[in-house]
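ingest -> validate -> predict -> emit
validate: passed (alphabet ok, no gaps, 73 aa)
predict: started
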Amino acid sequence: MTQLNATELFALIAKTEFKAFSAHDWDAFSGCESEAPFIGYNGDFTIVLDGETVNVIHAEDEFGGQLFSLNEM
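emit:
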């Protein structure tokens, strides 16, 4: 799978509808550190907005996704 660059990441985020974490989301992504993370789905991608960290996970990714730090962009 191809890694996303910053431009592709922002385009994907702009086209995704996000919701607050449910109890199930907390179970699946227990490593989140912010008090109110958001999750969205776009095609084969799951996107987790966790404070200043964005995790993009492709459906075929076996390694936990690609992390972005918004502070470093």
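The first helix runs from residue 6 to 14.
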